[in-house]
Design a protein that fits this description.
There is one protein chain. With about 190 residues, the chain is mostly beta strands. Helix content is about 0%, strand content about 30%. The chain has a domain of about 110 residues: Tumour Suppressor Smad4 (Sandwich), CATH 2.60.200. The chain is elongated, with a radius of gyration of 23 Å.
């Protein structure tokens, strides 16, 4: 975990920049120098190796996911906000949490995408998952890996359920209201 200039802690294995700051700069990766070939003794000329033949042209297979290109959303927007959860009850009341494309893990740990840090009744890691599908522009809630319960509009969530605007999510003693940003009127281009 590292700390961004704004003081947020985040896991560099999961995020290239602070997921809580829109202004965070990408992490600088320092390449490891590789040893080059040994120089020939003075006066000795080595033959030039033949150039490698060009790689065959291939058509990408859309069924194979990659880290750099995600179907349905441009790589530059992979961390764009697509919605929010607003805490309306509990120790985090008044705070909002950004929802990003794909899976957002909710838990008490600061390394979670949506950290409910001051609610001791929330599991540390992966109490619940809020997902955004960039292809269908749908939001989903599902239970995480913990034994704790998740409630949607007062009913227990046992399998993924689609979220609608103003739905309420209860996790531990925290109550959150779902507010979509991407919908049928707006989508990132």
């Amino acid at each position: 975990m590292i700390r961004c200039p704004q003081g947020h802690y985040f896991d560099t294995a999961r995020h290239g920049a602070c997921p809580w700051c829109a202004k965070a700069e990408p992490l600088e990766r320092i390449p490891t120098p590789s040893p080059g070939p040994a120089s020939p003794p003075p006066g000795v000329t080595l033959p030039m190796p033949a150039p490698d033949p060009p790689a065959p042209l291939t058509v990408p297979d859309d069924s194979t996911p990659t880290e750099t290109v995600r179907p349905g959303i441009r790589p530059a927007l992979k961390n764009a906000v697509v919605g929010w959860l607003v805490c309306v009850r509990g120790s985090n009341a008044g705070r909002d949490y950004r929802i990003r494309p794909e899976r957002n893990f909710i838990g008490r740990s600061a390394s979670m995408d949506i950290p409910l840090e001051s609610d001791e009744s929330v599991a540390r890691d992966r109490h619940a998952i809020v997902s955004f599908d960039p292809r269908t522009r749908e939001f989903w809630i599902q239970p995480g890996d913990s034994s704790g319960m998740v409630y949607l509009n007062g009913g227990a969530v046992h399998v993924p359920q689609r979220l609608k605007e103003r739905d309420t999510i209860e996790i531990g003693r925290t109550k959150l209201v779902f507010v979509p940003f991407v919908n049928d009127r707006f989508q990132w281009e």
